[in-house]
Amino acid sequence: MARRPAGVTLVAVIVWIQGLFTLLGGIFSLVAAPAGGELAGPLAASAIISIILGVITIAVGVGLLRGSGVARVLTTIVLLLSIANAIYVLLAQPATILGPVVSALLAVVGLIMLYTSRANAYFRS
């Protein structure tokens, strides 16, 4: 197997940071969600989705360091879902701009780095 490029290592770190932000954002949203009212259900659903995506993102990031093509595909899917979730959180909770924006930006950077020519060669070997 070819030597792992620094970009793939960077993606793994970005994936872990992304997962951590998503996980923490979900936990904070769940704790801060109002107990009743019209928005309680959607906010709780968004928080639970964020927690699940955060855990999956962290777990799949480990496979990237091992050169797993499956991990690369799963990471791509999770990062795309994380971007979608960040957009949803921005729409559902407009006051929480920083977390979702940082989360989405990290996901985009991760996707770009995951498909550089050196990363492509690494995952093909």
From TrEMBL:
Superkingdom of the organism of origin: Bacteria
Q: Which UniProt keywords apply?
A: Membrane, Transmembrane, Transmembrane helix
The answer to keyword Membrane applying to this record is yes
Question: What are the transmembrane regions?
Answer: 7-31, 43-65, 72-91, 97-116
Protein's UniProt name: Integral membrane protein
